[in-house]
Every structure is written in C-alpha cells, then in structure tokens.
Write a structure and sequence with these properties.
alpha/beta; four-stranded parallel β-sheet; 9 helices; globular
Amino acid sequence: MTKYILDSNAFISPYNDYYRQHLFPTFWDWYKNEITNPTGNIILPKCVYDELEAGGDDLAKWVKINLKSIVYDETKDGKVWLNYNKVISYVSKGYYKEASVDNWKQFGKADPLLIAIAMTMPDAKIVTFEKRSGNFMRNPNGEMVLKNIHNPIGKEPKIPDVADQFNIGCISLFDLEEELKIRL
C-alpha cells in the first residue's frame, strides 16, 4: 500500500489558497479523517507538524487540535537519519551554492527529512506543491545531475529534484485527492 508523506505546503497552500476552512469545511473534515485513520496511509511527520505549529495561526491551531495524536516521530528512526545523511551528501555535491545547502541542513528543516522518511518506506510518495526546477537530468549511470555543472543553483533544493535521485515519487495534493478518490 502506498504511503503518502505530507509536506507543510500540503496544508498551507490549501488553507490559504484553495480550500479556506470557512468555505470548504467538508474538505478539512475529509483531510482530518484520512490523516487520522488508524489503517490509513497518510503520514504527518513530526518535522512538518513542528513547522505548521510554529506558524501560530488558525491553521496551527487546527493541526494541534486535530492531528497531534497521530504525528509520526521520525527522530526516533535510525534509518531515517542514515538516509538523511545520504540526502545531504547528494545536495552537497556542488549542484547548489553553499548557502542553499546550508538552508537544507538547518535543524528542523522538513524537506530533506521528507525524502529520508520516504526512503525508509516501500512505495512512498511525498505530497507537495513544489515543482521540479528543470535543471537536472539523469546521466547514463542513473544519477540525477545538473544540466549545467558550471552554474550551481542559488535557490534552495526542490523536493522533487532531490527525490528523483532516490527514486521517490512526488505528487500534489490534487493528485492525492484523485488517488484516494475524494468525494465531498
């Protein structure tokens, strides 16, 4: 069964742009039920929960009230940290400028942890609104490499770009809705 690992923007974007709570309460009820389903396949990592809670807004309150009890604590999984080191090693290969890599190394930064979590679970997908940068291609050895190696990327790594290196799928929240056959 596919596991879906939620990025922070899988909450922030619908909350701010697509499914405002006061206009689409049935979406938020569905989302809560899917995430909290004990036999479900949606994972809310602690790193994402912490980012959302730090927002201090109404979304943070909703997450704390409705989802705190089902948070997946990746900090207790040694395999996640081994994979985290692989992710950081990959983004440190010179594809990104040092400041961009340093951003991903910050304590509590969810993006590299999402990929590391997905690497520990067979058939996992990351649910994110981030898009590929278009700056990478797969070389003959199967590694994702920068198309223009002489021009490292100044912006922070994008989850789908790095996930591609580790053969981790990324989908949007809309794709998740379709895969789970949402009906409101």
